[in-house]
Every structure is written in structure tokens, then in C-alpha cells.
Design goal:
With about 625 residues, the chain is mainly alpha-helical. The chain has helices at about 20-35, 40, 75-95, 100-110, 115-130, 135-145, 150-165, 170-185, 190-200, 205-215, 225-235, 245-260, 265-275, 280-295, 300-310, 315-325, 330-345, 350-360, 365-380, 380-395, 400-410, 415-435, 440-450, 455-470, 480-490, 495-510, 515-525, 530-545, 555-565, 570-585, 590-610, 625; strands spanning about 5-10, 15-20, 60. The protein is elongated.
Length: about 625
Amino acid sequence: MKPGRNITLFCRSGKSRRTSRLAHVGVAALICLGAVDGAHAQSLSREPSAVASKEFAEASVDRYTPPDPRHLLNQEGAAKSQALSQYYLGLSREKAGDIEGALDSFEKVLEVSPGQLRLAGKAADLAGQFGDSERGRKILETSFKSNRHLPAAYLRLSEYLWTYHNNQRSNRERALELVEDAAEQFPDNPSIYDRLITLHLAKKDRAKARETLTKALERSNSDPEFWLGMARVAQRLYPLQQQPVPVLINKIYEKALALGQGNPEVENRVADYYSLTRQFELARDLYITIIKERPEELIVREKLARVYSLLGQEDKVLETLVELEQINPHRLETQQFLARIYYDKENWSNSIKHYLKAFKISRGQPLEYRIVSTMMLWENRADEAVDLLMRAQFHYPEDLQLQVEMGVALNASDRYDEAFDLFRETEELAEQSQPELLTDGFYFSYGASAERLKKFQEAEKLFQKSIDLVPQNNAERAAMPYNYLGYMWLEQDMKIEEAGQLIIMANDLRPDSGAYVDSLGWYYFKKGDHDSAVETLLRAIKLMESQDPPEEDAVVYDHLAQAYFMQGNIKEAVNYAQKASKLEPDNKEMAERLKEYLAAKTASTQSDLEQPQPVVAPDPKTDVAAKELPNAA
């Protein structure tokens, strides 16, 4: 059998399919064969007349069975079928860059369906964009003749003439005439007035544009949608950016509202306009009206909350959002809104709570995870921050910024070895792809993990990198590495003077930091200047107590206790050593010092008791017995 020969297939369906490709036949035959068992397959070798049952499949060669006439397309249907195939062919040609071929296909479609105005516009734009604007004009002129009953036909042809044939005055005039004709035929269509005003403005004829708007606003139209549309048209002449808001625009919206009373859609759009133009009281009142009419409008409640926020009515914001959450606790936008409100109020605990609820609804964004992990660290919930960032890294494994945040959280969780390894890995990756992540803050945290692991030389290099990377316009940021590096040297009894200079620079940058003042007091202690140490450490404690809420630090108390002890003030040494041990009862070094100071206090008290008391002669002026002695004279 020749490859191009026709064959007919028969399946259980009783329908026939004709094809001119042998390969297609083979596939179809195999499909039919799959429906029968081996015994039925044998019957296919019989003559066709012997296989009359519908239970069998038959393939015959050199035989044609015409289709049922009932299944044939009529002339109109065949034309539409051809048009549809040409439409998809045109799309594929356009995608492949064959613009000429695409236009040919689209024009064939329009010959069959001239009412396809959108396709005519698409074809005309293709022609215009690729240099054949005259062909595009002809396409739209032909389409216009079939669609004169549609306002869009006038607007489309006018726009094309103005865009692609603007170099000829006759075309510009025709573009304007088309829209003017449309305004006469469709006087209640805001889109036509919008186009007409735009053309007048393009011709620098502002007076004519205003005349057109005035004429449109004189219409006795009772449809609120018309007035909402005209309000947008009027903004061509009276932009909303003007302050105060143009009175005319307000009046148009008020008319739409009056005609649309009880229509939540109209009321909502007018309220949105009031909100957009910062007329918040009007927006608030209208949103409240909508909610009373339709309490299920959750989006309107969110808009009301935003308006309350812009009015500075924070209590009302929370009240509205809490009600909204009670109605639907699974609404993502509500949880995010509440989280941001509490964040702005510095209510970290509640902000975290609502962000976590939002993460259960949606996986969240990397920035949101970073914000929440930071708040958790502020709340001393470092282990939770680590768990949260593990989840974030699962969703966004490529995000190195999350990896940096994880290192910070691991430091806060005292998991310094994991933090150090993670910072080292992040540094290697960031050097190749995101060097902007290697900031002064990154190297400060990296250095802190190295210091905690007693890798002092490496920590020194990392802190120095942090200092070198501090932005020149934000010198205060250098205070952290200055203080940390200086304090590390003091603790190791090395480079005492250099350490002191770094700590002094940190204090110059941040004189209000109790931690930095404590480091300065400890520097004086290491130098042996115990009087200055006591004075400075007392100032550090005063700064910490002035915070809101007041802060207490066992290390600062311990430093002051040691300074008092070296000064010889055992009583105050014991007092502050007890405060330190109370805050950190598991700290063995502090416990040992307290034990030592208590022993010294006991010994001092015993020594005072054992000292002989001197005999004091009575004072005649104050001693009663002396007053009673007779005058020697």
C-alpha cells in the first residue's frame, strides 16, 4: 500500500475516521486493537462482510465509507471552523515572529467574522507597529462598517488614526469627528467623553475640553455608574493631586452617591475616592454605613481600619481588626495588618503572634521571617527564632540573608560553634554571589561567635573588618566593634591601653550606653584605678536603671563588687556581689567571689569586736555626773 493511500478505520463506536497518513492509521488501529482480546483480534483477518457485530473492530484497505450527513458541517459552520483554525495559526505565526503571515491569517478570520472588533484592533496594531499603518487603517475601516452600532468601533478607529496617521491634518480631523459622532449617538457613555476631552487637550484647546465636560454633566442620567465614570473623566481637567480637592469632582461623586444609595458597590467606590483624596472623615462614615448594611463585607472593614489609622485613632484600628479576626481568623490580610499595627506599637509579643498566624495561612516572605526573628531576639526567644528561620530556609534555601539571620539567632541561643561554621560558609558563598551581605554587622556577629569559642586572634581580625566596613555616614555603628574588641582584650589581660582607647572611642560615640560605660569602668579597674572604676560603674548602673523598662546586668554588678572590694569597701562589695548572684545563681565564679567577700566581711566584723575600746574622759558640758560635781572654786 502506498503511503498516501486512504484507508478507513472502524471501532466499536461505529463511527469512521478517514486519514491520509499510514502512520496515523497504525496508531489508531493499535488503539482499537487494545479494546479486544486475542480471539477478537483473529477475527480481523476475515472479510469485512463477515464482521457485522459492533463488538469487533475492523480495518479495511482500499475502501471508503462516507460519513453520516448529519455529522457534516453546513457552509456557515465550515467557514467558522476555517476561521478558527486561521485564528490559531495567526497566533502561532505571531509568536514565531512571522508578522506578515499572522496578519494574513487574522484578515482571513475577519473576512468570515467582521464583527470581531478586538481582533481587528490587534491586527491593525500589528500592522502599524511593523511599518504598514495603511494596511492597519484599512482593517479598521472595514471593521468599522460592520460595527457602527458599537461605541468601541468609533473609539478604536479614532485612536488608530491619531496614533499612526497623525502627520496628516485630515486624519486628525477625522479622528476628532469620529468621537464627536459617537458622542451624539451614545451620549451616556463616559468613555466617549473621556476620549473627546483627551483629543481637545492634545490640540491645546482646553476651553473646548471644558465645554465638552460641561455638556456631559448636564445630562439627566439616573444611573450612578454614569456619574462615577464622569468623575474619572473630569479628572483629566481637574487632577486629584490638586489641594484642596476640586469641588467639581466632589459634586460628581456626591451625585453618584445620591443616585446609588443602598448600593454597596457605588458606596464603596465613593468611599475609596474619599480615602484616596485624604477626606478621611467622609470615607470613615461611608465605610461604617456599608458595614451596617452588609456586615459580611470584610474588605470594607479592612479599609475602615486603614482610615482609622490615618486619622490616628489607633484604638479604633485594633477594635476593627480584632472584630475582623473574630469573623474570619483565616484571612491573611487581617493577620498581616494586625502584626504591623502591633509592630508599630512596639508590642513585639502580639506582633509575633499574628505574624505566626499569617505564616500558617501562607508561607510568608523572607523579609517577614527576618522581622519576626529579630523581634523574637528582642523578646529573648532565641530558640524560637532559630526554629522559625529553619522553616524560612526550607522555603527559601537560596536566600543568604536568611542564613545571616540564622547565624545571629544561633549566637543568641549560645550555639556558637554552629553560628561560627554558618558565618564562614555564608562568607564564602556571599563573596561569589552577594558581596553586599558582608557588612560591618555581618563581621561583628561573626567575630562575636569566634570570641565565644575563644578563637581570639580570629575574632580580632573579624572585629577589625567590622570597624573598617562601618559606613562613613553612620559612625555610631563603629561603637559596637570598638567596645567588643576592647572588652575582649581586657578580659584576656592583653593590650590594656589599646583596649582602653577603643572603649573610650565607643563611649564618645554612644555616651548613653550602660554597657559601654561598664566596659570603661572595667578598663579603669584593670589599670588599678579603683576609685574611677567605682564611679564609672555606678554611672553605668544608673544608665541601665533609667531605661524603660529598667535593666539589670549581673556582670555590671559583679564588676562593681570587685571594684568596691579592691577599694576596701567590703560592705558594698558584698551588696553588689549578692545582686549579681541573684541574677545568675548558676555562675560559679560569682558565687565564689560572694563567698570570699562574705568571709572577709565576717573577719572584718570579728576584728572590730576584738579591738580594745579606748577610755573617754567625761565632757563636763554634756555629762550629767560631771555637772553634779561641786565647783572646785
